[in-house]
Amino acid sequence: MQNDKTTLRDLSIFTSEGSGGVFDLLDYTTTQAGKDMLRAHIQNPPDTFEKLQQTQDAIRFWTKHPDLWPAIISNGTLVMLERYFESADTITAPPSGLAMSVNSFFQRILNKQEYFLTRFSLSHLSDFLVGCTKLSEIGELEQVPALLMDEIGKIKNELNHRLTPDVIAAKKETKYKVQAQLNYRARREMKNMVYRLMHIYARLDAWQAMARATIDRKWVFPELLPAKPVLMEAVGLFHPLLRKPIAYDISFNAASNFLLLTGANMSGKTTFLRALGVGALMAHLGMGVPAKSMRISFMQGIVTNMQVEDNIHKGESYFFAEVQRMKQTAEKLMTDQPHLVLMDELFKGTNVHDAYECTKAVLEGLKHHSGHLMVLSTHLYEVAQQFSANDGIIFSYFVTNMSENGGYEFTYELKEGISNDRIGYLILQKEGIIDLLKK
After folding, report:
1. CA geometry: angle at 238 spanning 431 and 48, to 5°?
2. Euclidean distance between CA atoms 354 and 317, whole angstroms
3. CA dihedral 432, 433, 436, 437 (to 10 degrees)
4. Please, what is the angle between helix 191-216 and helix 112-136, to 10°?
5. Is 180 helix (H, G, I), strand (E, B) or coil?
6. Structure pTM?
């Protein structure tokens, strides 16, 4: 699956402030390296159906065996090891001389800094290798997924280093002379091996993080299907960032692949679009999704057209930016592989008449791309009415309860049909803006 920065921003996966997005819900990593790997995984999900299935199997394994994750390795362990090996190139000769002939007591007096650094560094290296050894033992269990077994095999190969047993066996009671010599050899000989192990560990950390998020938040693993025929079905799908979310049932297929959403402003259309996008993305990460159940085809990517931004440096207007994003969307639809396309209130940067004509033209074109799943929200109910007789389009709207005294209430309930609710003026009145401007 391929998703650009615009899609990830529209779906609030990452936030500009660095916290508060969907990423925070998934981040159960234990190390910064794991966090970076998780971010990279979200930005570049598995690119084939087979890889996605394998990744889901690996993450599912961790949901069943979270206790196998080695607690002995912390973020501090990896940070210390990076500093430890970064300084290895400055060492030109092994420890020797009179200082090595005295015992640990005098070493603490004569060479205090080097003494404690040696012991501290070796203990972190030992902890890391012990943790990796525990991970390697997972391969002895039954029904370990192939992708995870491949990573375990890599760990075993790396641990097959002549210094591994000695480093693991090093204890506080070990003579300083032995520790100093082992420290010198480890820094000279184990750097590349440990870095490779850290990379593997980071990948496993990302997988176990998604597994823990799935467990803690009671999400469910979706049923993954081949790309064709295109399909997305979900029961009880909701947006994971909301404290009190509304759950929705959805069903798309090649025969009914286009959902046209109508409803008043603030009635829930945008949140619904994001829930669809976030659910589809999480499914393509191989983890659980916020729903009671889901079946979804392998998508080539998610394309959103929701929060378009103008570019003052290029002299591009908001409307032109909308047009360019629509062009990018059209180019994606030219491919043979299915995409999930989410469009929210197209052409907001022009007048109502232009917006109507442009949206109508886009809808006419989108009807011919049945190999993709598409959702378009609009408050221009006249556009929806134009296509009401089209069998390939699903029409749904968000209910707004209107009272006789001009009041309104958003239910966020999704029903079949087309809405003609208009409450923009009522919102202005309720917020006191009209009265304020008259003063």
Report:
1. 130
2. 15
3. -160
4. 60
5. helix
6. 0.87
Q: What is the DSSP string of 247-265?
A: PEEEEEESSS-EEEEE--T
pLDDT digits (tens, 9 = 90+) for 39-56: 999 999 999 999 999 999
Which tokens sit at 286?
Answer: 């191989």
In the block, residue with structure tokens 């650009």: 4
Rounded CA-CA distance 178/180 in Å is 6
Domain covering 31-216 in this structure, CATH number: 1.10.1420
CB 166 within 8 A of CB 182: yes
Q: Higher model confidence: residue 104 or residue 263? A: 263
Instruction: Concatenate the DSSP letters of all residues of 222-236 into one string.
Output: PEEE-SSS-EEEEEE
Report whether 256 contacts 392 (CB < 8 A).
yes
Residue 342 phi, psi dihedral angles, 5° rounding: -120, 115
Give residue 84's pLDDT: 83
The residue type at 10: D
- What tokens appear for 160 in the block? 């097959």
Q: What does DSSP say about strands 373-378 and 293-297: parallel, antiparallel, or unpaired?
A: unpaired
- Single-letter code of the amino acid located at 14: F
Handedness of CA 363, 364, 365, 371 (dihedral sign): positive
pLDDT for 216:
96
Q: Which two tokens stand for residue 48?
A: 């084939």
Please state the φ and ψ torsions of residue 402, each to the nearest 5 degrees: -110, 135
Residue 194 is predicted with a pLDDT of: 94
The predicted pLDDT at position 181 comes to 83
* Distances, alpha carbon 197 to alpha carbons 127, 132, 203, 211, 435, in Å: 13, 8, 10, 21, 67
d(CA 275, CA 8): 13
CB atoms within 10 A of CB 335: 12
Instruction: Dihedral sign for Cα 424, 427, 429, 431, please.
Output: negative
Chain mean position to CA 198:
21
Residue 203 in this model has a pLDDT that exceeds 90: yes
Residue ranges per domain, the chain? 31-216, 223-438
SS3 content of the chain, % helix, strand, coil (to 5): 50, 15, 35
What's the topology of domain 223-438?
Answer: Rossmann fold (3.40.50)
CB atoms within 10 A of CB 365: 11
* Lowest mean per-residue pLDDT among 66-70, 320-324, 329-333: 320-324
Query: Which helix H or strand E contains 151, and what residues bound it?
Result: helix 146-159
Please list, in sequence order, all residues whose beta carbon lies within 8 angstroms of the beta carbon of residue 256, skipping any fewer than 6 positions away.
392, 393, 394
